[in-house]
């Protein structure tokens, strides 16, 4: 039962037909394009991790951290610019560009594969170039939602769109490990390129007009003036500043898990690519599971309770991982960590959604996310360097202790704040 974006869902529809993926054809095309490309990107990341860590180069852990940090650097550098392009130009064309160019970059990597094998540092350049277009895809696709679904169904569409990253990570991580064992690293790169090709075909089938008329030039603000207004808002609203600060600090100690998982797989378990994919899958499934629960949760959340709880849970998980050599125990621990990450993100983002005015919300979220991304490459680089000298287990232990401090800070930062959701039964968590 496909409807246009001007036709909202009906209460009498079966549950199956109430999902915007099945109701709105163009939303489904965007959803599938993002999901397939996200799975392909997981293949790329796991292949690069496996390739670098099994290479004969010295300090491979540090090299992997450096290469993984390329994506964060690219998003920081190009994020604001790509956001402007997504607002000014047809969003369908922007999404096509964000899929076509990375596909050709991956194809180029396949063509020069033997040379790259001798110069692994060049992977940083390939990763940086591919990741440069991720902000364009995200900005164009997210801002397209009101243009392809009915206004009353935006919330459902946003929820479905937000789950793409976790679903893609779960599917990609599971399939990539097994596929690399069969077809090798270069086979995973072929899958990545093919995924972009499928995404392009989905995007080409979009029929809605995804171009939004912009304000007249004389009424437009300069980009720099808009950015300054965002910083001024932070100075006036200390609660938002504290939320962003705790989010950035938590991201600093959480982001190293990106390279800790492949290092644990090889150095601790002497495992295979499939083992690494199971660890990745455990983290992703925890996030997916908790996202589903939060979608129907009716009680209020108290910042001074839930944020310290999630930080202390992260601490306990990391400390347990640092002391364990049991593979499946660590899988369970990562599942709990994924759940904790999902709760933390939901709490912080929901609070900010409620208190930030709509007129400035985009800039505040962009600046806040940029702050979180700025700390990630530093954390990744430090993890790679310290794991070479101290060992990955000790690095994880240090992060676990740090989360205890972060949890205590979260309690004192938000102990006087009111709850942020309306409760139907008047209960708090």
TrEMBL record:
Keywords: Cell membrane, Membrane, Transmembrane, Transmembrane helix, Transport. GO terms for cellular component: plasma membrane. The chain crosses the membrane at residues 35-53, 65-84, 96-116, 122-142, 154-172, 178-204, 239-264, 276-295, 302-321, 327-352, 364-386, 392-414. Its main location: membrane. It is a multi-pass membrane protein. Coiled coil: none annotated. It holds the Pfam family MFS_3. Residues 239-429 form the Major facilitator superfamily (MFS) profile domain. The keyword Transmembrane helix applies. One of its GO terms (molecular function) is transmembrane transporter activity. It comes from the Bacteria. InterPro entries: MFS_dom, MFS_trans_sf, TM_effector. CDD domains: MFS_MefA_like. It is found in: Cell membrane. This is Permease, putative. It comes from Sporomusa ovata.
């Amino acid at each position: 039962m496909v409807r246009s974006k001007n036709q909202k869902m009906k209460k009498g529809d079966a549950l199956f037909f109430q999902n915007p993926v099945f109701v709105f054809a163009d939303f489904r095309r965007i959803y599938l394009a993002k999901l397939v490309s996200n799975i392909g990107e997981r293949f790329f990341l796991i292949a690069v991790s496996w390739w670098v860590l099994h290479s004969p180069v010295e300090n491979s852990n540090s090299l992997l951290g450096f290469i993984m940090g390329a994506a964060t650097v690219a998003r920081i550098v190009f994020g604001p610019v790509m956001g402007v392009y997504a607002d000014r130009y047809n969003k369908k064309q922007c999404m096509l560009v964000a899929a076509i160019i990375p596909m050709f970059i991956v194809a180029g990597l396949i063509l020069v594969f033997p040379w790259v094998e001798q110069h692994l540092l060049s992977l940083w350049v390939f990763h940086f170039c591919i990741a440069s277009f991720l902000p364009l895809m995200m900005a164009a696709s997210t801002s397209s939602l009101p243009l392809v679904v009915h206004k009353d169904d935006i919330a459902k569409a946003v929820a479905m769109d937000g789950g793409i990253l976790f679903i893609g990570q779960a599917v990609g991580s599971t399939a990539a490990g097994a596929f690399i064992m069969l077809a090798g690293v270069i086979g995973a790169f072929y899958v990545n390129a093919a995924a972009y090709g499928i995404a392009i075909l989905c995007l080409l089938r979009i029929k809605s007009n995804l171009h939004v008329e912009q304000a007249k030039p004389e009424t437009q603000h300069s980009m720099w003036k808009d950015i300054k207004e965002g910083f001024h808002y932070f100075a006036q609203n200390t609660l938002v500043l504290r939320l962003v600060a705790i989010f950035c600090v938590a991201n600093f100690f959480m982001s190293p898990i990106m390279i800790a998982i492949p290092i644990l797989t090889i150095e601790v378990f002497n495992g295979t690519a499939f083992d690494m994919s199971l660890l990745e899958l455990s983290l992703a499934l925890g996030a997916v599971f908790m996202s589903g629960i939060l979608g129907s949760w009716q009680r209020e959340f108290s910042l001074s309770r839930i944020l310290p709880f999630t930080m202390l849970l992260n601490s306990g998980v990391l400390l347990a991982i640092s002391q364990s050599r049991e593979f499946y125990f660590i899988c369970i621990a990562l599942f709990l960590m994924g759940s904790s990450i999902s709760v933390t993100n939901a709490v912080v983002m929901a609070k900010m959604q409620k208190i930030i005015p709509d007129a400035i919300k985009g800039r505040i979220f962009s600046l806040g996310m940029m702050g979180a991304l700025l700390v990630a490459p530093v954390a990744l680089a430090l993890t790679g360097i310290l794991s070479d000298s101290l060992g990955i287990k000790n690095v994880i232990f240090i992060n676990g202790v740090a989360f205890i401090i972060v949890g205590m800070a979260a309690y004192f930062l938000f102990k006087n704040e009111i709850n942020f959701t309306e409760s139907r039964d008047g209960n708090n968590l």
